[in-house]
Amino acid sequence: MSDLALPIRTERLLLRHYRADDVDALHAYYSDPVVARYIPWEPWTREFTAEMVGKRIHHTSITGVDSRLAVVVEHRGEVVGDLILWPADETLSRGELGWAFHPSASGRGFATEAVRAFLGVAFEYCGMHRVIAQLNALNAASARLCERVGMVKEAQLRRDYWTKGAWADNVIYGLLAEEWQGR
Q: What is the pLDDT of residue 60?
């Protein structure tokens, strides 16, 4: 599969590939302990942010089990978040979606708009059959986001993974292609 033709424009947002000059914008929220509390990493240092941006610049398509599709989300020229999609199995027909958004973007519907657009990419461009999101059970904002975009809570795995010094419950939300098409 070729690289996705970006940018994607929604009503208010622009979803585009990562660029080297995104480091400061992404560091502004990934370095925030509030944002980092439910992601696998501690708050990002500037050096780690530069490393992650350097990797994600190359995440432009789903072509194999180790591939990724990563986009930055802009509103009026300002980075408000980012999304990443990766294969959940070797068939490339199941995907997993992750996201992070700047706290200043909260409550404005940007995450909902961006995730909906990216689900469209997963199902319509990548031809996926199923997309999931796995989140810490304490992450109520992401759970609400999953539900707003039509994902269904499928499981809650108790004390499923060790993170930041404690066991955490893992909640799995899923959406099937036919549910997406019938929305």
A: 94
The domain spans of the chain are 8-181
Q: What is the pLDDT of residues 71-104, one digit of tens each?
A: 999 999 999 999 999 999 999 999 999 999 999 9
- What's the pTM? 0.95
3-state secondary structure the chain: CCCCCCCEECCCCEEECCCHHHHHHHHHHHCCHHHHCCCCCCCCCHHHHHHHHHHHCCCEECCCCCCEEEEEEEECCEEEEEEEEEECCCCCCEEEEEEEECHHHCCCCHHHHHHHHHHHHHHHHCCCCEEEEEEECCCHHHHHHHHHCCCEEEEEEEEEEEECCEEEEEEEEEEEHHHHHCC
> Could you tell me the fold of the domain covering 8-181?
Aminopeptidase (3.40.630)
As given in the structure block, the two tokens for residue 3 are 């690289």
Mean pLDDT score across all residues of the chain: 96
- pLDDT at 144 exceeding the cut of 90: yes
